[in-house]
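S1.2 Input.
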Amino acid sequence: MASAEPLTALSRWYLYAIHGYFCEVMFTAAWEFVVNFNWKFPGVTSVWALFIYGTSILIVERMYLRLRARCPLLVRCLIYTLWTYLWEFTTGLLLRQFNACPWDYSQFDFDFMGLITLEYAVPWFCGALIMEQFIIRNTLRLRFDKDAEPGEPSGPPALANGHIKTD
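S1.3 Output.
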């Protein structure tokens, strides 16, 4: 039947990294528009965001798989938000040692060492909800067909509720 296999951890890391990078650019563009009414929407980020987001979301994926049957959704999202703050602070502190930290929240009222700010708690929480419900869940459903020829359409798989049937 179908030879589809789940994506490897490296493949999922790559998808998570690209997703996080894109979201960072879009968030900074939207922030620039809301704060400065800049119609150019100049979204910015750093190449470090690929590693930061890819690794963080892969870790949250592991949390999701362990917590989904044990904790309600809102509790999981709170845990992911706390993880995000810890990860942002840790990676920011490390990057700051090399003068490479791309963010500085010093101008915010509730910042800590300019590396994290409580003003982003609601966006991080909403991002955690979207990350679990759409990004992680759908990425875990993706399959790789090792027997397919590149550029050639494969036969349509028999689907049941979005999953490949394996009669």
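S1.4 Remarks. Residues 32 and 91 are 24 Å apart (CA to CA).
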